[in-house]
Structure formats: C-alpha cells, structure tokens
Amino acid sequence: MKTNRKTLRLLTYVFPALAVLVFVILIPSVVALFYGFTDYSPGREVSFIGLDNYISLLTNSRFWMAVLNNVYYLVGCLVAELFLGFSCALLLNKRFRFQPLWFCLLLAPYAVSPVVAVQIWKYLLDPTYGWINYGLTKLGFEPVIWFSTKLTSMIPVCLVSVWKEFPFLMITIYAALTTVPTEVEEAAKIDGARSFNYFFRVLLPIISPAVLVGLVFRIIFLIRSFEIVWVFTGGGPGTSTEILAINMYKESFLYYNFGRGSALGWILLGITFAASYKLIKNANKSLLQ
Amino acid sequence: MYKYRLLKKLNRTLCFVLLLFFVFFAIFPVFLVFINSFKSSLDLNTYPPRILADFTLDNYKHLAEDNPRFMASLKNSVIITGGALILTLLIAFPAAFVFSRHKSRYLKFPALFLMIVRMFPPIVITIPLYPILRSLGMIDKHFTLIIINTAFSISLAVFMMKAFIDDIPVELEEAAMLEGCTKWKSFVKITLPLAGAGITAIAIFVAIGVWNEYTFAYIFSMRRAITAPVVITTIESDVMGINYGALFASCVLHLLPMLILIIVIHKYLVKGMATGAIK
User: Are residues B82 and B200 in the same domain?
Assistant: First the structure.
C-alpha cells in the first residue's frame, strides 16, 4: 500500500509533461491514423475506405517522386554536412588562437531561423543580381539559373539546409573529440602512426558511436523537413523539389484530402521510427541508470 | 629536424587558412544581412553588388513606421516564445527531478514515452489538429501556439535538465534532508540554484527553437497571433516590387537576439553534447 502511494506521488511530478504530450501529440496522431483509413475532407461526410489511401499512395507516381526527391535531398545534405562537420570539428580541435571566437562564428547559422536563412540565400543566389552568380561570372563561368533544370533546382535548397544545420554535426563531433584523452594521440604518434592512419584507425572508432547518434538525428530531421524547402521553392518549380512533407502538406491543405494526407503522415512516421528504432532502444537502456 | 619543424608549421598554417575559409562560409551571409540592412534601396539594387555603401537607418525607420504588421508579429513572437519557455520549464523541471533522483520501474514507461514522442514529425499532427482547433475556435490564438510549441520542447528540456542535475552530487540534498527538509524542498532549495547555469542554457536552447518555429505558426495563425517568421516570408513582396531593404532589416531584428543568446551558451552546447543530453 505504501509503495503504491509513493509511486503515485512520483508520477504526479511527471504527470504535467505526460498530459501535454498526450493531448497535443499522441491523441492527434491516433486521430490521424484513423483519418488515414477514411476519405475525410473538411465539410464532407466521412466514410471508411480501408486501405485505399495507402494503396493509391503506393501506386502513385507523384508519391514515389517525392520519396526519390527526399532521398536526393537527404543524401546530398548529409554528405555535405558530414564533410563540413568533420572538417570544422577537427580544425577546431587543433585549438588555434581565439578558439572561442571561431567556434561562435561557426555556430552562428544554427541560431538563424530557417525562414531568415532562406531569405538570405535567395538573395545571394538570385540569377540576375545575386552574389554567387556574380562571383561565377567573374571567374569566367556561365551564370547558373538554378531552377531551370530538375537536377540543379535541388542544389540551392540543399545549400541552405547544409549551411543552417552543419553546426549540429560539428558540435556533436567536436564534443566527441574533446572526450578523447590526449594520451591516445601521443601513444599513436610514438607508435609511428601517420595522421591519415591515426584518424581512420584510432580516432574514428573512438568517436563513431557519438557521431552515429548525431547522424541518426540528422536523418530523422531531414526525412521530415518542411520549412526550408517550403519557404524557398514551395516544392517547385513543377514538382522538382517536392519532398514528402511538402507532398503531405499540399495533399491536405491545398487539395483538402485530409484522409490521404493523414495516410502520408503515418508513412512519414513509420519511416522515422524505422530510422530511430535502435536509437530509442539504446537511449532507453541508458536512461534510468 | 629543422625541415620537419618547418613542415609542421606550414601544415598548421594551412589548417588555419582552411578554418578561416569555413568560418567565412558560415558567417558571410549573416554579415551581409547586417550591412545590407543599413544600405539605401538604391545601393541595394546596383549591379555588380557592392559590399560597402552609404550608411542609413531608413530601412529600420520604414519598418517601424510603415509596417505595423511586422512589429505586431514581433510582439507575438515574444509573447509565444516567452509563454512556451515558462510553461516548458515549469513542466520539465519536476519531471527531470524525478527521473534524476528516483529510480523506479514505474518511471520506465514515462521515460520511454517521452523519448518516442520526440521522434514524431510535427507536420503529421497538423492535419488532425486543424479541424479540432477550428471547431474549438482556437485557431489564431497565442495560447494554441504556446501549448503546441511547449509540447515539442518538453522532451528535449527534460532530458537536458536530467543530465545537468545528474552532475550535481545528491549528498548535498541528503544533508539538507537530515536538517528536516523534504526531498522535493531540499531539491528546490539546494540543487536548483546549483543547476541554475545549466537551466539557463536549456532555457536559451528552447527559446531559440520556439522563436524560429515556422510550420505551426504558418498553419495555425492568420492575423492576431501571426509570428515574425511567417511575416518575413511575405515582407519582400512590396507594392513597389521586391523591397530588399525592409526584408534585411526585419531579418536582422529577428536573428540578432538569438545570435547573442547562442554566443552566451556556446560552452554549454559542447558540454551538453558530450554528456548526451542534447542527443
């Protein structure tokens, strides 16, 4: 009886947090799951249509194009972010003079809102009087009209995304590097390891668990990302930058197919969970130690 | 030996130049917005673009006088960020206390739930929430955005706070409990002030997230509760064509507070990552 009262008291401390999450996130998500099996559209009668939404989505070429665009966007951003994150973290770890200054300057994009980031880069990338094309023409190249072909229209979008988000991986990697004791490097140097070997054989295995966690987080956020692409291109021109979240938004708030939009939302949720399953499992294990 | 030292020095210089190059990539766009916000629209429209031009405060004056919509949205952003921040801290603090100071198998499920909910894509809940909020008359209300933003900040705040509280030795609290304090009271009186710096860092982290939030504000607000990021996306299309001056000035007003705050907490960011809190 006594333990029950104690448990109850403990749970009252967690209760407000759980209540907000249940009402704002869990219940709406379950409602969305239910909508996914209907042809719900605001102002019309709802009827249950089983798996029709999912079937029509999975046989729809526009959906698969959004998937493909999302993969393109994800891989492009991830490779660039990883490169920048590693480079900056390793360089920061060399501890040049004014270290905090360089760190803060590299961190700056992280504080900029996605909307502002898009506005800045839109100006820089403007085909007629932007700075980037001005620089390209000065160097003797043809000015690039970014949104003229399907292949190049994703580049500016990725660029904004990478610029804004690379500090996250940079901090993750840098934090992991600071936990590596200096003795490790000294020992490796004494054993005659070249810096190339030292990095791949010694450093990378030590920091890779932490980096992997950061990477999974970036993948999750890139799968669901919406703001930057929506504000920049709205998924256009045509559908050349239409990624999953934008497809979902258009389906629901432009065409008012809330049922189909919900089904898409749950596909998004499923992909996210598949990507983060191991992360949740590991975190939960270490959480209550 | 001399040659080796020279090579090493050269290598280090090269690394430094590389670092400066990345720093340039990161900071140049921000720097450009700053100086452009002080240029007249005439200087902004010249081609080739010029870095330096005559200094003027016209853009800010225009924004303050002719654009009440942006100023109101900035006020809304302050209200919503402040509200969500206070609510998040009030809710997250007791939860972090319990997760850090009590071990009970009954807490396993709530912890798992908090963890999983963090993975939910925010955009998914906009669909079911829209008709619900609409029927309740809650669209375009500050409170709606405050509560939604709180929900998406809580889990991060709880786990970060737990990590910071874990660092503070529990013995101090136990000493206070010997003096007759209850566990919660001794926690509030002893540990809370010690965790102050960490909690400030968390508060700033949450504030940055809410201040920059766009999707919910875009979908759930129209006029009265509209926030600055949503207005910034439409500010460029003036009656007179693209008005870059007003755009840059509004961008500066929006990004400056968070830029200062992130500089304040930059040390905690690394520490937070190293302890696994932000992850």
Answer: yes
